[in-house]
Request: fold
Amino acid sequence: MCGVLRAADAGKKAVLMGWVNRRRDHGNLLFIDLRDRTGVTQIVFNTDRNRAIHEKAEGLRNEYVIAVIGTVKLRDANTINPNMPTGEVELVADELRILNESKLPPFLPSDTALTNEETRLKYRYIDLRREVMQFNIETRHKVAKAIRDYLSGEGFFEIETPFMTRSTPEGARDYLVPSRVQPGTFYALPQSPQMFKQILMISGFDKYFQIVRCFRDEDLRADRQPEFTQIDLEMSYPQPERVWEVVEGFLTAAFAAAGYDIKTPFPRMDYDEGIRLYGIDKPDLRLPPFTDVRECFSSENLQELAINPNLPVIAIHIPKVGELSRKERDDIKPMFHSKGGARVYEDFKRIGNKYPAAAEAIGKNVGAEAGDLIVLVAGSAQAGPQSPVSPHRKVTPQELAVYTSAGLLRLALAQKYAERHQCFQKGDFRFLWVTNFPMFEWDESERQWMAAHHPFTSPHEQDMKLLEEGVEALHDPLSPLSAVRALAYDVVLNGTELGSGSIRIHRQDVQSRIFRALGMTEEEAKARFGFFLEALEYGTPPHGGIALGLDRIVMILAGAESLREVIPFPKTARAVDLMVDAPTPVSEAQLRELGIAIRKTRE
Ligand code: ASP
Reply:
């Protein structure tokens, strides 16, 4: 291979095959850098040694595929390239065979400047020849293999589940596949193998995993893919802690495969605590948590500042940002739009001048040093009518508005000043389990409750009573349903959700009640999930599991900026594959066979 020859090989005969990466013509001497996925070797064609192949070599162009037979030679001291593993040697060519020519590609794998992404995706096969892409795909292979090996070692079976199936709800739209044999009917591509993996537990395969493609037709937000890969697993009889231990085990193996050591067990945080301390359900532990500094102000101060004294006053603390110039202050102003009754006090200096005692107390409370940035987020006293507070929720909706505004603002500021505060160091992996999520989320537009995770998640044993009461108040945002906690957990890394899972419902009556809480009548539940409800009645063991996004994990480990950099053949933000040009219209004949007519939509 082109990356393997070393000084110790000098004098040996070698055969190399690969692509012409670069060509330099020095008259008598012609140099070719020959490339394959292992690296690059310099080939020398020397007129004095062999005129005929030198002439042939003159015809070589970038990306021709060639085979060379030659002799390995130590380079002269002054031509040694210490930046290349093969930099001490070259191959002096004795024979050359041109295996295939290449048109001039739209860009070269050896180019240092990146061409635009559309061209890269259209000519993905050229793009994938680039060293970084080869590294990313190799990392993907190694990470997936480490996970497979770990899970197999723990007694998990990798079992395939169908792609042509029924709708599996995970909160997105389904991709549908029309049936030719039964016109007018459709398969759905799975949003996840959720129901199948639960059925595998009912079937006696007590430890299942699959590295599996899932399909979700979502309005594509930045960096989402309509098809993506999950590390999906399920086990019978676990406590959540057992699932976490398995995940920590395979993540340790995956990170080790990419050269990183991580510490386990990961810390754990209650969902409510995450909201109170970080304003978000996926806290980035590299940043300091919030401090509630309400106590630092007197009640007169709060009144003058039009701050609601019944809500938290959050101090966001970003260390080492340094004095902000006037322009910098203006630049960050647009981040400070207030939302849902939360209000931002950006000019801490002004507050400091006017309320020196409060400012000093705040500085002390958050442990600030000179040059740290402090921004206050508080509830506005003038915020519209107070929405009623559910007696069942620990965090009220108004508090939530303050916490989440502060959470988003803090992330935006932290990202903006990342270079200065240096909280985001490469290789600093701060994992976290977030637990005890709410079971339901209120959907204001539909005026009903939705599953926060998915409808197969088990509520807390202690909250079953709330669930029972709640199904009597389905269309009420203050229903006891608001307080039902789920046995659900997320694994978070540096503020990114890597995966979600839960202990599942294994009792048919509880599952039916959850469907009811989600607004489904018994008939609807039967029509959509009848097979599953029936399966639950035949001796279902308690079970639970999780799924993690493989693409995202590889992206982090490869140090890539986007999922598209670690997926060999990704789609664009408009869900288009630019290389094969999909999706495409199909022929009339195909449509007729499927019993499908296309209705023209108006522009
Ligand atoms: N099916 C879930 C998902 O895709 C994961 C799980 O609950 O295991 O997010």
Notes: The first strand starts at residue 13 and ends at 26. The pocket of aspartic acid is lined by residues 170, 192, 194, 454, 500-502, 545-547 (CB under 6 Å).
